[in-house]
Amino acid sequence: TLHTATWRSTLPPLLCSPVCGLQPAVTPRILNGQASQPGRWPWQVSLRYGGTHICGGSVITNSWVLTAAQCVLGGFIFDIYNTISSHLHRPFLNQFDLELVRRLIPHEKYNKSTMENNIALIELEQPVPYGHLIQPVCLPKSGHTFQLNGTCYVSGWGAVGDGQEPLPYPGVLQELRVPLVGPRKCGCLYSLPSQLSGQPVNVTDAMICAGFQEGGSGADSGGPLVCEESGLWFQAGVSNFKEGCGHTNRPGIFTLVSAYQNWITDKVDKTDFLYLPLTWHVLLPWVRWSSLWPLYVKTAFFIL
After folding, report:
1. Pick the residue with more confidence: 292 or 15?
2. 17 FRET partner, CA 20 to 30 A, in 164, 191, 211, 246?
3. Choice between 73 and 58, residue whose per-residue pLDDT is larger
4. What is the average pLDDT across 145-162?
């Protein structure tokens, strides 16, 4: 007990259980490459449609997954109904536990144009069992600041190159160590006109930047940006916005998780009050629409 108390006192404040952010004992990652070893990021999940990877996400408790609002709304609506899986191209996914999704909860003030409040929660119908390959990531308390010289990674299965070529078979989870970029520098870089739209991008206080000035962060939309502190991994950001690899002055923009502590805890702790407005075109088994019932879409959660 004394040891546990001393250990806790050295850690930043946690939003979730103290048993989080731990990596299993795996062999070192591939040198000079981005392929990750199995189980290295045990909170990583993939939003998929028909076997095609769409977005990333992270396990924050045994009943909740954190991702981006853009992954559960808008153009992705009918693409994210099939599975969330920890590995792509697995021939026997049915050998793993299947958990139905209970609710998709995007932030109420998500702005597609500015990408503000680009964060969402996915509640599972049944808790997933923690084990060697399934662990939650730690969440930082409101106001926590990550050191710019810290150890941070992004991970996912997204496209390679400039976003045009999908990750080839066998679709091994990719990882990339990235530097954090200070808010003033990031805001300055994004004040320059975009190479895609010709317009500057407003980097708000609820965003955090990571990646390289020459462009790209390697993160999937909705995927986690994690940083190590005191031997544990904390989710600093949710991948929000990027302009592709090789675009200079464009590090990745992530939704700052610590800025949404109250929103996350409110949704997680008050699930009895959650609902899906009928204006959202998301079909779930318990949402009855007069024009569409009894048709519905099942969302599932696969973990390796």
Report:
1. 15
2. 211
3. 58
4. 80
CATH of the domain at 40: 2.40.10.10
Do the Cβ atoms of 193 and 199 come closer than 8 Å? yes
Q: How far apart are CA 256 and CA 239, in angstroms?
A: 9
Q: Give the count of domains, the chain.
A: 1
Tell me the longest C-alpha to C-alpha distance in the chain. 61
Question: Would you say residue 291 lies in a domain?
Answer: no
Amino acid identity of 167? L
Please state the φ and ψ torsions of residue 267, each to the nearest 5 degrees: -70, -40
Report if residue 17 sits inside a domain: no
The answer to whether the peptide bond before residue 294 is cis (omega within 30 degrees of 0) is: yes
Give tens-digit pLDDT for 65-82.
999 998 888 544 333 333
In a domain? residue 52: yes
Query: Would you say the C-alpha torsion 9, 266, 255, 20 has a positive or negative sign?
Result: positive
Helix, strand or coil, per DSSP, at residue 134: strand
E strand intervals along the chain: 44-49, 52-61, 64-67, 83-84, 98-106, 120-124, 151-156, 174-177, 180-181, 207-210, 224-229, 232-241, 252-256, 300-302
Name the residue with higher pLDDT: 222 or 278. Answer: 222
Q: Over 80: is that where the pLDDT of 12 sits?
A: no
For tokens 């502590």, what's the residue?
Answer: 261
Residue keyed to tokens 């969302």: 299
Q: Is the dihedral of CA 208, 210, 216, 217 positive or negative?
A: negative
Report if residue 21 sits inside a domain: no
CA distance linking residue 42 with residue 131, whole number of Å: 9
pLDDT of residue 293: 25
Residue type, 260: Y
Distance CA 68, CA 82 (A): 17
